[in-house]
Specification:
Length: 281
Amino acid sequence: MKGMVKTVVHGVTSAEYAGVNLKPGLFSNRKASISIWLSFIREDLLPAHYTVFLADDEKEEIGRLQSRAKAREYVVSRAVIRKALSHAARQEVKPHEWRLEKKKGGKPIVKEPASFAQFQFNLSHCSGLVAVAVSKDLEVGLDIEPGDQVIELRDVSSVLTHSETSWIKKMNKDAQRIAILQIWTIKEAFLKLLGKGFSIDPRELEVVVGTDPTVHSKKWKLPGKPFCKSLIIHTSTSFYVLSLATWKGIYDELDIFFHLFDPAPSRVEVPGMFSNRKKRS
Ligand SMILES: CC(C)(COP(=O)(O)OP(=O)(O)OC[C@H]1O[C@@H](n2cnc3c(N)ncnc32)[C@H](O)[C@@H]1OP(=O)(O)O)[C@@H](O)C(=O)NCCC(=O)NCCS
């Protein structure tokens, strides 16, 4: 039976170099690939480290953003998207040359160069981390959430179905926290894959979590065979739950590549990320 049975995770070495420990458990295959780019928002870097990748209209947008934090998140996320697209296009297009647009519903897409308009990407950002998934072959949806947030079952009654809730209730508190975040991020990744965001009630999707989580809907027919993976990204001080959603399509294998985007690697140590290193006297 076809359908992404082989799983390969690439890029773990570079991720470890930057202080990230990726727990494999992901993915893989007639061979499609998805690249996931991670970038930690570094307070010690200047906006110029990132704006060099941006298009002119994005540079103008920075001044319209309400807070410094929003502006920083904006420049980092746009730089990562553009860097990731250029990498997928083997540098045939420079980062600032991409023209991006939002579809009805808000999902961002590549508009120009038209010859690369089949490229797909999706973005998620949360507390200091930006994650972008890019693929030449497959539509993608991505979501990332901080792992250390305290979420009670009652807080997510608008997100979880009855079966998901009763399954989670059987777990201990720590396992509950992870399971809630996994279901949450898988649903959100799927809603972003569909391009609908939360115009759809998340309870219309049901997730069965495991090594290979599955998603189905009793209410409506999904437009393809869903495929999702969820993994935990550890830094020295915290962790994140990241979920990726795509359609199986015609592919037998999916390769997932991880990349770390840091415009000034090894220049300055980021507090927190490297806090387990001994200080030189
Ligand atoms: C996009 C959405 C689905 C998720 O947003 P979010 O969790 O707040 O933020 P994320 O960082 O994960 O994603 C935001 C990015 O997704 C992309 N996005 C926006 N709308 C999208 C859509 N309809 N489809 C796909 N991607 C979309 C954008 O790139 C956006 O970043 P930008 O605004 O800087 O361009 C949002 O529309 C929403 O409704 N959020 C509600 C969150 C919620 O209630 N979650 C319950 C858990 S199931």
